[in-house]
Amino acid sequence: MPDTIDTLAQLEALYGAPNDASTVKEVPRITAEYRALIEASPFAALATAGPEGLDCSPRGDRPGELVRVADERTLLMPDRRGNNRVDSLRNILRDPRVGLMFLIPGHGNALRVNGRAHLSLAPDLLESFAVEGKRPRSVIVVAVETVYFQCARAVLRARLWEAEAQVRPGSLPTPGRILAALSAGSVGGEPYDSNWAARAKETMW
């Protein structure tokens, strides 16, 4: 057997064919069951691609408002406050293909959605996503192409929702420490970390 896989034939010979449960779960629309999972999720990873490369952006919001189901083939995601890099949005403008992976705390299965997106500035739509009087600057509109759930093995292996597996506070480098190390101390440091809670509260939405 070769040390690397170079062809689809080699890959398929090694892994075999998927079973019925792996294929029947993929559909081109949001079913009632899949809608329930989307509306329960407060977190998703948004994957995009562009000329500069790939991007995978974490997205978090209140369940039901992280992504709103407009109809069985359309999702609406408000672009909340962030770091203004707009890597995902820049990519969408040049390559509309997107992938979403939803996680639900305490639930083992993930939900995956693939589709094509565009950015909306429709005033009524922006206003419908306002929180504490603050509207998102844009809304990502996703035309759904495929939807399917991912089985719980990865979450179980990671022990993602087990309290005993949580990392101890203070055991990892802080954002301020990372920034200071990367900027020779010109950005970040202890003041960045100590001011984070107040800064986040003011800029959450």
Brief overview:
The chain is α+β, with helices and mostly antiparallel strands. Helix content is 31%, strand content 27%.
From the 3D structure, determine the CATH topology of the largest domain.
Answer: Pnp Oxidase, Chain A
- The number of distinct β-strands equals 7
CATH homologous superfamily annotation of the largest domain: Electron Transport, Fmn-binding Protein, Chain A
Give the CA-CA distance, first to last residue: 54 Å
Tally of structural domains: 2
Strand percentage: 25-35%
Helix share bin = 25-40%
- By DSSP (H or I, 4+ residues per run), the number of helices equals 9
CATH class call of the largest domain: Mainly Beta
| Overall pLDDT level | 95
Shape: globular
What is the succession of H and E elements?
Answer: HHHEEEEHEEHEHHHH
CATH architecture of the largest domain: Roll
Q: Compute the gyration radius: what is it?
A: 20 Å
Biggest sheet layout: 7 strands, antiparallel
Strand order in the largest sheet? 2-1-5-6-7-4-3
Structural class by helix and strand composition? alpha+beta
Return residue spans where pLDDT drops below 50 for at least 5 consecutive residues. none
Model description:
With 205 residues, the chain is of the alpha+beta class. It has 2 domains: 19-158, Roll (Pnp Oxidase, Chain A), CATH 2.30.110; 167-203, no CATH class. It has 9 helices and 7 strands. It has helices at residues 8-15, 20-24, 32-40, 87-94, 123-128, 153-158, 175-182, 190-194, 196-203; strands spanning 43-50, 53-60, 68-71, 74-78, 97-103, 110-120, 139-150. A hairpin with a 6-residue loop joins strand 5 (97-103) and strand 6 (110-120). The longest helix is centred in the first third of the chain and has 9 residues, at 32-40. The chain starts with 7 loop residues before the first helix and ends with a helix. The mean pLDDT is 95. InterPro entries: Pyridox_Oxase_FMN-dep, Pyridox_Oxase_N, Split_barrel_FMN-bd. Pfam families: PNPOx_N. Residues 30-151 form the Pyridoxamine 5'-phosphate oxidase N-terminal domain.
